[in-house]
Amino acid sequence: MAKQDYIIGLDLGIASVGWACVEVAIHTDKDGKEQAQPMGLIDCGVRCFKEAEVKDKTKPASLNFARRQARSQRRTIARRANRMRQVRKLLFRHGLLTANEFQAAYCQNPKHKKDKDTTLIKERNEKLLKKIGIPEQQLLSGSLKDGEQAFFSNVWQLRVKALQCKLERAEFAAVICHLVKHRGYLSTRKSERKNADAETGKMLKGVTENHNLLENKEYQSPAEIAVHYFLKEHGQMRNKQTLAYKRITKGENKGQFELDAQGQKIPIIKDGVHQKEGSYLHTFNRLDSANELRLIFEKQKEFGNTRATPDLCGQLYHILIDQKPVLQGDALKKMWGKCSVYENEDRSPKHCYIAERFVWLSELHKLKIKEKGRERKLTDEEWQLLKEIVFRKLTAEEIKLFRLRSKEYLEDGIQFKHIRQLLKLPENATFNSCRYVYDKDKTPEQNLVDSEKTVLFEAKFFHDLRKKYTENGLENEWEALKNNPAKLDQNRRSFGILQGR
Which neighbouring-strand residues pair with 46? Predict the structure, then answer.
């Protein structure tokens, strides 16, 4: 069988691999270089398989999504538990709560995963309540004093009360624990609003709306929003359990009250407004919660509460606001990998100048121009025109040619149309790297223009660094730095360590 020269092309997708085998004829051009001329299609096909994704609620997710989400939840729960342990120790140290009182206040949770047997829950709660002399029947019937009932049923109300009058010892402890446990959301990422996904955007919207209510002086604290605003909007305050009576749901007497054997209405406890999944209307900014903590201590001090000391407030503020720091500095250096080629050198950042320049020159090397049925690479003159254009300042003629108006750099990336304009290519010339889309409702000329608006390359880091220098009045320093690749890479490494990326 005669030897046959061929090229195999692969199109790799998430659920398929397409392939094609093309016969080529090898010939030598005038420069002595071998060129492959396509002669015909030998064979082609596609191999399909199941994509490595699972269908989430709104968009596809990786197979590790569920594991990653569960791990994140475990960490959140563990950090909250550790935070509450710190508060518990602090309260014991300042004599605000004993261990039994604290456990009694925070063990009444029939929805707890480990407590599926409601009989055991009831027995446990009765024992805990008896330790502090409060029968469970009194608690459910609402015959306690206002402060005692708020302590066990709805601490949101008690947080509002803390701004109006002096709190008892147990009430003050309940408010502190509740504030630290429900401390709100705070992000350390500066670019979150700009790059937020749909879910994060909803949460930020809820946080912003509640923060604006406080900024407008309509409410003093997040607790007042949770109690008064939600009562006005939903007809029921957040998490407030109310007494209701069971009604008949079927038959002729549907809607009427159901009676027991003695002819009495059957009482039931209705849950209050809770935050539903995907809704962030009740999410508060952590800084607003921290301000509420300080405001409560100020008011309690005015009301004569001797337990509201600056020392306790400061320690609680630190626990409430504390967050794991962004990975940066020495902690990030420890995770910096070594180069696979030069094993004694650190791995280069992804967006350093040398990496961006390498990618750009690679794109130019791969770029070919199709003209009159033939495909050619860039000439030396074309190469010289293009190799620095994405990094240097444009001339007045180039700005006018590209119609960039006030911009002096190609900071948004170089498009195929810019290359056509700069090289003065004829209309019948096309690029091998450009994907041409043909819309039957448009003219061929318009289809060509629309397709070549695609960005071939963008020197993102280089121009971000340039803007940081020029915006801070360091134009002279930038002029000395921009032609020094080693210094540019060193700057990028420093930014990566400081910013945690």
Answer: 18
- What is the phi/psi pair of residue 164, to 5°? -115, -30
Q: Is the pTM higher than 0.70?
A: no
284 touches 275 (CB < 8 A) = no
| Dihedral, CA of residue 144, residue 145, residue 147 and residue 148, to nearest 10 | -30
Check residue 345 and report its DSSP letter: S
CB 230 within 8 A of CB 238: yes
Cross-strand bridge partners of residue 377: 368
Distance of CA 486 to the CA centre of its chain: 33
> By C-alpha distance, which of 445, 386, 383, 372 is closest to 418?
386
Token match 């701004």: residue? 163
Q: Which two tokens stand for residue 74?
A: 């475990």
d(CA 427, CA 208): 52
How many Å apart are CA 311 and CA 300, to the nearest integer?
Answer: 14
Classify 383 as helix, strand or coil: helix
Mean pLDDT of each 10-residue bin along the chain, 501 residues long: 81 91 85 81 92 71 82 90 86 77 51 46 48 38 34 70 88 88 78 56 78 84 81 54 63 75 65 56 85 93 91 92 73 76 79 85 92 87 90 87 83 90 89 87 86 89 85 85 79 60 46
Interatomic CA distance for residues 172 and 91, integer angstroms: 10
Phi, psi for residue 292 in degrees, rounded to 5? -65, -40
- Name the phi and psi angles at 386, rounded to 5: -95, -30
Joined tokens for residue 107: 């063990």
Cα distance between residue 489 and residue 352, in whole Å: 5
Q: Which two tokens stand for residue 407?
A: 């911009």
Collapsing DSSP to helix, strand or coil, 42 comes out as strand
3-state secondary structure of 147: helix
Q: What is the CA radius of gyration of the chain?
A: 34
- Nearest to 270, CA basis, from 239, 309, 301: 239
Looking up tokens 């990028």 gives: 492
Closest CA to 463 of 395, 391, 386: 391
Q: Which of 325, 342, 317, 240 is nearest to 282 (CA)?
A: 240
Q: What is the Cα–Cα distance from 177 to 187, expressed in whole angstroms?
A: 22
